[in-house]
Design a protein that fits this description.
This protein has one domain: Gcn5-related N-acetyltransferase (GNAT) (Aminopeptidase). The chain is built from 7 helices and 7 strands. It is 37% helix and 25% strand. The radius of gyration is 16 Å and the shape is globular.
Length: 178
């Protein structure tokens, strides 16, 4: 089978493998004090799943080759942990996954990534996400994510048109989504 499906408990090791193989691209790009090996421990992944991240996987011939999570937090949905095995990148897997997750929520979508990971920012921009204003970034990261101050300092947040539309519709520049 080839296609996207919701991951199940038995996919845990495969999700962990995809994340850590693909995350190697960040080594030497993100600040050295933010890099660790493995990039995500099994304990960290268990915590993320317990915190409400639902993973979807792209499966090719019985093997997960890409994963992406969605987490509903307050009034938004977050795209979390989007990774494709290096040998399978640039084949549309990430785009298919992000399209699937967009179909699965009617909430505004936010996502965060490392500011220096230009390829990741470009990928999300290709699918219609835009960086949020810098004066909103830190507040959004503190409101919707559980990340360190150092990660907040070195990250960017991107949002879909729904988020920008709701922000603009409030007319005041202040909205629950900020």
């Amino acid at each position: 089978m080839t296609g996207i499906r919701q991951c199940v408990r038995e996919d845990f090791k495969s999700i962990h493998l995809v994340i850590n193989k693909a995350a190697r691209a960040f080594q030497g790009v993100i600040p050295p004090d933010c890099w660790k090996d493995p990039y995500m421990t099994e304990e960290d992944l268990r915590h993320e799943i317990a915190d409400g991240i639902c993973f979807f996987g792209y499966e090719e011939e019985g093997v997960l080759t890409g994963v992406m999570g969605i987490q509903h937090v307050r009034d938004v949905s977050l795209i979390r942990h989007a990774y494709v095995l290096p040998s399978r990148q640039r084949r549309g897997i990430g785009g298919d996954l992000i399209s699937e997750l967009r179909r699965r929520t009617d909430r505004p979508i936010l996502l965060g990534t490392w500011a220096d990971a230009a390829w990741a920012v470009h990928f999300y921009e290709k699918y219609g996400f835009r960086p949020v204003p810098l004066d909103k970034k830190d507040g959004l990261l503190r409101t919707y994510w559980h990340v360190s101050d150092r990660q907040i300092e070195t990250s960017v947040v991107l949002a879909d048109e729904r988020w920008f539309g709701l922000r603009q519709a409030s007319g005041t520049g202040h909205h629950a989504l900020e």
